[in-house]
Amino acid sequence: MKVLPANLVPPLALCALAFAGIVLSCDSARGQSGDLSLDVFVCDTPQSPPAWALYERQLIDTLNQASIEFYDTYVLEDGTLEWKERYEGGMNSSDDAYEAFRGYSLLTALGGSEEVDRRHRYVWEGITKQFTRYGQIYREFDSNWDWMHHGEGYISLYPMGLVDPDDAIFRDRSTRFAAMYTGEDPEAPNWDPEQKIILAVMNGSRGPKMEWVKRDWIPTNGNLTYYPLPFFDIPGVEESTAWINDHPDNDQFAKLVKAMSDRMAKGDVPINLATTALIANAYLYTGDEKYVQWVKDYVGTWERLTQENGGITPDNVGLSGKIGEYTGHWWGGYYGWVWPRGGTDVVYATLTSAKVGTLLTGDKRYAELPRSQMAVMRNEGRLENGRYVMPIRHDHRGWYHYSTEIAYPYVNLWYLYHNDDDWKNIERLAEAQRERDGRIGDPDLGWAYFVRGKNPNYPVEAFQRDFEFVAEKMETIRNENGDPETWVDNKWIIHDPVRMDNLVRLTIGGMPIHKRGEMLHAQVRYFDPENDRAGLPQDVAALVSRIEENWIQIEFCNVNQFERRRLVIQGGAYGEHQFKSIRVDSSDEVAIDAKAVMLDLGPGAGSSIRLTLDRYSNKPSYQFPWER
C-alpha angle 49/50/52, rounded to 5°? Predict the structure, then answer.
């Protein structure tokens, strides 16, 4: 294939060169973004827009409008949420309020309206002020809560860096938040630099909370009646109704909280591993290697504790660094193997930290922490009524509470590490679903099969479901007539119409962001050089149709029949992958060595591009390709 400098090629010659299979080596192509210095690959082959492309572009437009209508319904002029005048929520934090807007900046980062991101930043400020007034937020960060909830709330923070890495306010905010966990903030001494642990289960901008009282658990206590008791040896406490039983002659609530405070409050737990995403967020803004070292130190602590405990990640470690220092066992900690939901929370937390560790260091060993814990539960599993189930809880009775095996960890592990055993687990679960139900109902499994060429109808069916979802949410929003003083704190999550899972999966080959403090992980990300912004340019649709260990396939379509469109394709969400070669349609493969390339699509043109990748070989950053 020929390679020519773009500045030597007249614009009218692009079409002829494209049909001739010529690549333009762009040494001087410029937009508002300045000197891009990228190879340009031209496609002028006309294509009738495929159904997935039309659905995708319409869905982006629909979500743009739905997000604004949702915002206008529930956000006041000052950026606060229409809600209670007073909210005394104990340790209960602002996570549900922030989380309701988790898709906003992410939508912009994928090609949605910049107005959506602008409103997200404004409502973030409003929520912060509102919950500061309520008493849950101090110095712009939740004062004391656990990292299941911190993680849920702050998943909406991280995509802001994808949209605008130079926003000084959120850049500063991100480094200040990280300092609360790296030991650099004296007012929030959450970190023990000697033991390399986080000092308490409840932590935040006021530092570690070492003791709990009843007031801390109101109004959360009402919800906890639906979970089993954390301990079964508290005198006079035999049922979960103890959470709401505070009779003066038999205050079971007080007894329960006192036992939990003594055994759970102090020391570290696996759920705190979600802090790694907060630290990575600061690194992606700044590039400061101290954040990488912190992640290595902290995840390393839990790797060591797991090894010391015979391969099972313990769910509690005391201030001395001893496993079971306050519980007497490797189980019995907060969000651990017993309470409230069992071992899946241990897996989710270790999975989040493994993905962060690999992103920042390129080291694939981090996968073993979540992978091994799935194996621990799977090896104790059994068949029940033709369905394989595994135990998710362990205490003095051994393993119990058998539940359907979840696919999400296996899909994430295969996605990042391309391990054959992970893929075999995906196939095992997918085929069991197909045999039992006649189809693969789990969207993670369905998508994994699609990117391996086994489920071709997935994109259109997934987008159709998204339209149904948005329609249902919008009907509820448009018929809103409730009293804000009576609304519960997850009101806005319930009505949030901006579901991004399938756009993330299909446009950039990414893993959805909706659990436990995750950040975006993707095969590629796109930028609009003409408008100097992140995301797909207007009218361009993209579909990551194949993912293999060292290469990916992407389909592109310009649905505009009258105007050209250019887009930049970056390796990974943060430029962490290096492109080594490219093949456009049926042309010969061309060797390249670049973090990003540019595609020039003619009016109504479509193209299929195969890119080989050197994964995790670059320093990740929020910076746009032309700013590095």
Answer: 120
